[in-house]
Amino acid sequence: xxxxxxxxxxxxxxxxxxxxxxxxxxxxxxxxxxxxxxxxxxxxxxxxxxxxxxxxxxxxxxxxxxxxxxxxxxxxxxxxxxxxxxxxxxxxxxxxxxxxxxxxxxxxxxxxxxxxxxxxxxxxxxxxxxxxxxxxxxxxxxxxxxxxxxxxxxxxxxxxxxxxxxxxxxxxxxxxxxxxxxxxxxxxxxxxxxxxxxxxxxxxxxxxxxxxxxxxxxxxxxxxxxxxxxxxxxxxxxxxxxxxxxxxxxxxxxxxxxxxxxxxxxxxxxxxxxxxxxxxxxxxxxxxxxxxxxxxxxxxxxxxxxxxxxxxxxxxxxxxxxxxxxxxxxxxxxxxxxxxxxxxxxxxxxxxxxxxxxxxxxxxxxxxxxxxxxxxxxxxxxxxxxxxxxxxxxxxxxxxxxxxxxxxxxxxxxxxxxxxxxxxxxxxxxxxxxxxxxxxxxxxxxxxxxxxxxxxxxxxxxxxxxxxxxxxxxxxxxxxxxxxxxxxxxxxxxxxxxxxxxxxxxxxxxxxxxxxxxxxxxxxxxxxxxxxxxxxxxxxxxxxxxxxxxxxxxxxxxxxxxxxxxxxxxxxxxxxxxxxxxxxxxxxxxxxxxxxxxxxxxxxxxxxxxxxxxxxxxxxxxxxxxxxxxxxxxxxxxxxxxxxxxxxxxxxxxxxxxxx
Length: 660
Fold this sequence. Notes:
- The protein is built from 18 helices and 22 strands.
- With 660 residues, it is an alpha+beta fold.
- The chain folds into 4 domains: 123 residues, Killer Toxin P4, Chain A, CATH 3.30.430.20; 112 residues, Killer Toxin P4, Chain A, CATH 3.30.430; 99 residues, Phosphorylase Kinase, domain 1 (2-Layer Sandwich), CATH 3.30.200.20; 226 residues, Transferase(Phosphotransferase) domain 1 (Transferase(Phosphotransferase), domain 1), CATH 1.10.510.10.
- The strands form 6 sheets. It has a 6-stranded mixed beta sheet, covered by helices on one side. It has a 5-stranded antiparallel beta sheet with strand order 1-4-5-3-2, covered by helices on one side.
- α11 runs antiparallel to α13.
């Protein structure tokens, strides 16, 4: 497989649940090792990736004769590119070969992997299969996401019906549809060899199954070998012009009411009998009425402008579209005991963070921006607009914001275990992070970045990924925070430039520092540095070993075959996997390559982390960031920048929610 195809086989993280490969090896018959059936099974499965990617995302085939004959099928989700289709099917086919060692029938259509691969010793082409059926759900209750559950279920049902209908009406090459209604996102697909009626039966069976077992949860999927349905409260597919859109408002009546028609007819019939005096009275009355209406509108407009005067700037910035997330100042003051010092979790460059408890007992973290901070105000607007669009278990969740008087407040979920740097770089607390926990943190951060780069509604570059911006919940699940410097990219945009370079020394990619160029590969570089910090237990800004900085030391030991010298001494005597440590160092070095073109995508990174069988390219000499002075001198030599406003020196991020 070439380097371009070493890309993640799981480009979306279903419901924030840990990625696993789920296959169903059916016990309908077995074959012996090295038998004709076994050889045919392996041959046809390994041929599927090329055939399905070159045939529009769906392919049926058979091979062999008699008892050795094997039937196989592959189907990619309707929004996958040809290359992604190849990658997903290739991964899934090889997993079936290794997992279903002697079963004559198996399939995989897992929620984490957007493709179907199926084989059997009997023909199943065009045959509806409703068993086996499997489902997965997001365990969060739907009542936590909406205040009107009854209305939500009504909208949900209408959307499922509309998407199922559209999918079943597809062609013999594609039976796939997506839909959006308010915050609800839905996707359905059948194998295209099914008839329209069979596809409709299959999808509606899944909807009924989900309704019976799981409707009260915030998202999930149900699937059989013939069809699948999935829904969630965030966008997990690529919307197209064919995506079904439903709204709460009912369409207007196509024809005027009967009473209106009769009135019109009456006026028409009696028109001739109206006297000139009556007409004059009617005209005068209309003029007076219009004048009164105009006067009322002007008064209401003035009152509205006066009432909203304090929030005008914020509304111009687009925050008025997020009214559902607004908290009242009095409720936030009550939750934080009027921003009591006892509730302060920490203080940064833009403001202080307080712990609070709402009336329903829910714990929150409140970021209170300093008044008069122009930069803080810009960061505030940017963070609200970005984070309001994001929902993923590896991103800190924005619960709301408050704009009253001169207060600017951000309300987040409370994360009890502080930020990663408070544990990782503390010599007393660091031993609490065993290797399995560190590997879980590395993988979780990678999935969060993958969501930002590929799977969220917008392509987002974080631009300030570092240990203080990784929060840890009670289960040590990492959550990326601080989106104040994040940038939204267009669907086809790959990079951008800035005249104001801001970030933290050591984590910033060389092309960003020297030329102001940033892209998703800038985040990949920061992630590589973070991996090496997590493995070594040392900050990149403080690490020195015989005069070598962290990247130099890691590269030198990698080249000499002694890369485990980088591993934190607290891990060396433990039970952690040495192969995982070595592989993680390898990935870290790939991420910090000098040229952004040589760095892997987050797709590839996650695949390399979850699948040890994936081969990886050898790293070359990484970019070295020996000191902040060197970086400053390099960047300051560029005439394209205003040196007085060029750098933000390791400022405390406004989303750092650190308990004391």
